[in-house]
Design goal:
Blueprint lengths: L6 E10 L2 E9 L7 H10 L13 E8 L5 E9 L3 E9 L15 E2 L17 H15 L6 H6 L5 E2 L11 E2 L2
Length: 174
């Protein structure tokens, strides 16, 4: 199988568990991630967040709907001022100890007996460099950190290979 980029959808940030999270959805389906998969993923998300440590409570989420039965939730939270904490979950993927092929039945893949410290596949990693640069630009470099600026600085909806553009346009609301 030849490699192909996937669709990257940028949704409005949400506040979950007291943490502001930018949202990226990755899928080959041009219609986006199914609403029931997203709803199930976001229901588990609070369990994947770190305890507050004084760093502004922000981060980003990558929800990836695989080409098979799998769905993957990667939660990246800023901690210790300049470090990313990772929490992960999967659904519908037996190789990751999911109980069945239901893409809405998420189980943790971090913080378990069979710890998997994987931080994302090639499609899920697309937002990482942008998010690092946005954190530096809005939270570390200025005299006064600008959380609203950070939350408004996201990739544009497009493909996982087109990671150069920033700004709010192109965001979905669902």
């Amino acid at each position: 199988m030849a490699f192909a980029e996937k669709n990257l959808f940028v949704l409005e940030p949400v506040e979950i568990g007291g943490r502001h999270l930018k949202r990226y959805h990755v899928t080959a389906d041009p219609a986006g991630v199914e609403p029931e998969v997203a709803e199930a993923a976001y229901a588990l998300l609070p369990e994947l967040l770190p305890e507050p440590d004084g760093t502004p409570a922000a981060g980003f989420v990558v929800l990836h709907r695989g080409g098979d039965t799998g769905a993957y939730l990667n939660v990246y939270s800023w901690v210790w001022d300049n470090v990313l904490h990772f929490g992960g979950a999967a659904a519908g993927q037996s190789a990751l100890d999911c109980p069945d092929t239901d893409p809405t039945r998420f189980v943790r893949v971090t913080g378990t007996e069979r710890e998997r410290s994987w931080i994302g596949c090639v499609w899920e990693l697309a937002p990482l460099v942008h998010e690092r640069d946005a954190w530096v630009r809005h939270m570390l470099a200025p005299e006064v950190p600008d959380l609203a600026g950070y939350l408004g600085d996201a990739l544009r909806t497009g493909t996982t290979g087109a990671t150069g553009a920033t700004g709010r346009s192109g965001r979905r609301t669902g």
